[in-house]
Amino acid sequence: MFVNKISKSAIYLFFAFASVSTLLSCQPDDAVDGNGLTDANVDASFTITPVDGAVNTYILEAQTKNVIASKWNIGDGLYSGKMTEKISLPDAGTYKITHIAVGRGGSENVTTKEIVVATSDPLKGNLVKGGNFANAADHAQWSSCNLSPSGAAKWNFKTGSATINSNGGWAQEAMYQAIDVVKDKEYTIDMNVSSNDGSNETWFEVYAGTTVPASGVEYKDNKVMGLSTWDGCAKAAFSGKLSVVGCVKNAAGVISNTVKFSQTGKIYLVIRCGGNTFTPSGITISKVEFRGK
């Protein structure tokens, strides 16, 4: 009797395993493809509509059918956005607008269109000359303060960017240019900043002061924004707008990239950087902007 019960149990187990195997064998080879969970043909198309009464302002509207998320790039890098985005392009030029539509299962498709801006916005246009570092003419718009005569810290210009490299040991260097401003008008300052590595005991500071920069003199007039390992940023690799990844407080003791001035005239946009243990890849900047609000 005991042997007979064991035999029956073994038979039941055999049929149970056989049933599971049969169910599994009926599943598609790919548990995702072909079962409706992934939309490989998600539509990334979008429209561009100028906003009436607004200068160089546009509405980007993605089609929404079967789209669960949108990513956009209007020239400053990819970001997660909404299906409908309102953008401002204050500077004249041709802009490549890219939309990535995310569908079911995480599948993505891309559509790219161009916007041609014929004339810069007279109020919000970029007042920085050579802020794109596009060529030698752009590079020539910037002057050096020569804070490290030994050359231990130095700005190096490339096509589309400028990088400060340093051997450390508290060496520093600054570059600057003059900008004309209007009394009591608000302006915003920003730029793309990046580094492949972190630093220690290092600062990257942006000033907008009325004091004329001088070689060998550390600039300290009206600090606006920046990076600082003492304040908790630039200790690891970073990339993004300085207004986003920066952590340095301005002269008023708050984190802000907005400035205004008590008189009409000339101010100096100064970028000063240095430190003790400096990132081996340097700190790179691009698309430096100084705009009216």
UniProtKB/TrEMBL annotation:
<dbReference type="InterPro" id="IPR035986">
    <property type="entry name" value="PKD_dom_sf"/>
</dbReference>
<protein>
    <recommendedName>
        <fullName>PKD domain-containing protein</fullName>
    </recommendedName>
</protein>
<keyword id="KW-0732">Signal</keyword>
<feature type="signal peptide">
    <location>
        <begin position="1"/>
        <end position="25"/>
    </location>
</feature>
